[in-house]
C-alpha cells in the first residue's frame, strides 16, 4: 500500500511579542530571495506538523516557542513557484521580545511593528492577516 | 529546486445534518476495513485542500457540500498504518439529511446519531470530538 504523491507539506509560524510585533526573516535563498517571510519550512516524515514548526523556528531564528494555535491551511497550487506546497500556519506568543539569531534559510531576523509596509514572500501577508483575526478572537475568549 | 519528500496529505470531512447527526462511511478497503470513518482521502497535486475535501465527499457519498470550517490538522506519524499521512479536517453542514450514495472506498454510508458507540478508523474519534467543540463555538458566535 504505497502512499500516493501529494502536495509538499510545509509549516509557517506567526510569532508575536507582547507589543504585538511579529518576527520576520529575510529570505537568503530563492524563491523570494531578499523578501520578508515568516519562519517556516518543510515537514519531515516522522514528525508532527507542530514539531516541524518548532524545529524551523529554532533553526531559522534560534528561539523556542510554546503553545501553537492553528491559524489556517494554505493550499493554492500557485502559492509557491517551486511547485505545489501546502502550508499549515500557527500563531504563538513569546513572553518577551527575545533577540533572534538568523540561521539556516534566514539572512536576517527581526521584530516588525508594521508588516503591511513590507514586501512579503508567498502568501504570508494573507497568513499574517488571518493570524491577526485569530489573535483578536483569542483575546476575547 | 525539487521539492522534498514530506508526509502524504489527506483531508477528512465531518458532515452534520440539522439534527446533529454525522455522515459516516464503512470502509471497503484496508486499513481499517469494515470500520466506520469520515469521508475523505488524498489531496491531488494541483487542487486545494478544500477542493479535495469536496471531491472526496462527492466520490464517496455522492453529496455536494458548501462552506467548510477548519477543524484541525492531524499529523501523528502513527495515525495511519500505511505510512505518515497528515489530515486536514473540515466541518460542514447540510441543510437537509440528504440520502448518501456509497461509492469509491465506501462499502456503505449512513447518518449516525451517536458515533461514540462505533469503532472508528484512524484518529477519526478525535476529529469528531474536536468538530463538536468547534460546532459549539460556532453556535455561540
How would you describe the overall organization of this protein?
The structure is a homodimer of 141-residue chains. By secondary structure, the first copy, chain A, is an alpha+beta fold. Chain A has helices at 49-61, 124-140, and strands spanning 8-16, 22-27, 36-37, 40-42, 69-74, 85-93, 106-112. In chain A, strands 4-1-6-5 form a four-stranded mixed sheet, sandwiched between helices. Chain A starts with 7 loop residues before the first strand and ends with a helix. Chains A and B meet through strand 1, strand 5 and strand 6 of A and strand 1, strand 5 and strand 6 of B.
Keywords:
141 residues; 3-stranded antiparallel beta sheet; homodimer; 2 helices; 4-stranded mixed beta sheet; alpha+beta
Largest contact between protein chains? Answer: A-B, 32 and 32 residues
Radius of gyration of chain A (Å): 14 Å
Quaternary state reads homodimer
Q: Indicate the proportion of strand residues of chain A.
A: 25-35%
Enumerate how many helices of chain A there are, as a single number: 2
What class would the helix/strand composition of chain A place it in?
A: alpha+beta
**Biggest sheet descriptor of chain A:** 4 strands, mixed
Distance separating the two termini of chain A: 44 Å
The residue ranges of chain A in which pLDDT falls below 50 over 5 or more consecutive positions are none
Helix percentage range of chain A: 10-25%
Strand order of the largest sheet of chain A: 4-1-6-5
The 3D shape of chain A can be described as globular
Question: What is the average of the pLDDT values of chain A?
Answer: 94
Order of helices and strands of chain A: EEEEHEEEH
Number of strands of chain A: 7
